[in-house]
Amino acid sequence: MHPSARSLHLWAKLLHATETQEDFAVTSCYRNEIIGFQLLRSGVIGVHQRYSIVYYNLKTLKKATDREPILGEYYRYVENDETIVLMGRNLFIIRKVLRSAQYAMQTIFACIKNFILKPDELYLVTMDDRIFVCDLLEEKLNCTLVMAMPANVKCLECVNGRLSVLTADDRIFIISNNRVISQFNLHDKCNALDMLRQYNLLNHPYWCNSAWYVEWDLKVVKIYGDMVFVGTRFGVLKIYHYPYVNNELNLDISKPIKQYEVHETPFSPQCHDKNQIIHIDIVEECDGHKVFVGTLEKIVVIKFSHKNHCTNQCIT
Prior knowledge:
InterPro entries: WD40_repeat_dom_sf. The N and C termini lie close together (about 10 Å). The protein is mostly beta strands. The chain has 3 helices and 26 strands. The strands form 7 sheets. The chain has a 4-stranded antiparallel β-sheet with strand order 1-26-25-24. It has a 4-stranded antiparallel β-sheet with strand order 2-3-4-5, with no helix packed on it. A 4-stranded antiparallel β-sheet has the order 6-7-8-9, with no helix packed on it. The chain is globular. The chain has a single domain, classed as 7 Propeller (Methylamine Dehydrogenase, Chain H), CATH 2.130.10.
């Protein structure tokens, strides 16, 4: 069995795993506050700080020697194997892989407020809520209009060629072939979290300002197979195993199997922003898992090991 496939199977035995914790990218300086991070398949993690992106080795958690920092103030940073996207006052698209000498290494777009990066495509949302798509395989990066939305776009996702778009008036639009094929309203009586999950929007943080969200403590929700990871505004990480009732995500009556306080600053109502969890991601290992939890002041790594419970040898 492939190591990652087997370790995914081991999540059901999490209560029996041994665990360790360590921190990195720790800071108490405003200029170095953490905005997010990206786990990259090249074995590095890009840590997005307020005025730079700094790369760390994924195994040693020390600063990477083969990647230079990216300097500048950016609101968002996303990176995959071939492309880096930085959003500040303008949107910068940087190609890491040039397929020919004719390929533009960097392209800049103005008046962009949101985006999602896919392996071969980049979807952009303009300030006037038009959605465009950019083919990253083309030599010159040009944008094609997908649709002008009727309301303020909060976040979007694309799965199997279909766009899910959440707007500020709490509607979800499903778009295929440049037209709306279905539309749903989020309201007090519906299971809003499960609706967001169904349409692949739950892993995006931009839904958290909705009116029906005010009473929730959630800041980050990450669906990962049968596991659900929740980061709160008060620096608490909750790990659930299959928190579904009648096939719907239900965190109200489900209990976490693990819970941690990961914030650096002692909690007080005045400094709750510094305690909030801003990002969660997971790395599978041969005999366990690593959970990366980002706050403004550090990244916490919780390592779960199943060595004492594994009978098969890992394939490397």
